[in-house]
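Reviewer 2 asked us to include a model.

Predict the structure of this chain.
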Amino acid sequence: MSSANVAVVAEATPDAIRIAAEARDRVRFEEEALALADQVFRVARHLAPSKDEAEDLVQETYARAFRSWRSYTPGTNLRAWLLRILTNLNIDRGRRNQRAPQTTALEANDYYLYDKLADADGGASDEERVVERLSQDDIVSALSAVPHDFRDVIVLVDIGDFSYQDAAHILDIPIGTVMSRLHRGRRILKRELAESVMEDAS
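Predicted model (structure tokens):
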């Protein structure tokens, strides 16, 4: 091999190594992300009004995650990263749907969430009954008004049915912070839902 050819190979080798390493990193990322699909779907199923829409939401979440995989920092919490994409996509979807909202008849018990969220013991089982009483647009609109950090905790604990410990692990924050953010987030959500119910009733 001539010295010129050796020089070309030597120059190409660092690029080849970088490309190979990036390919391995992407494969590893996709494998780790797909291993969390059941957990992502469980949260999506609570957010979306139907199984089909939940599946679409998960598919869109993974499509965006795979496109943006370089923005994920290896070693940080991948579940939290995926669920944040899921939550933001769901809120975007809700905003689009609000352009042509579906109205439903309100009953006295539609104030249920307003009252229930004032109770410190409100949990996932209560949230499931709440979702049945309020329209999807109401929930998404109210969640969109909750600041990001508080919204993540509400989605995980109240909607995603994660324990405080699981939420703390997913978000990489102490359990005490989860509880504090959940308490404050519920207060904000309660106010937003009450305003939504009042607007719909007027």
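Confidence is low (pLDDT under 50) at residues 6-10, 101-114, 120-125. Residues 3-34 form the longest helix (32 residues). We have added this to the supplementary material.
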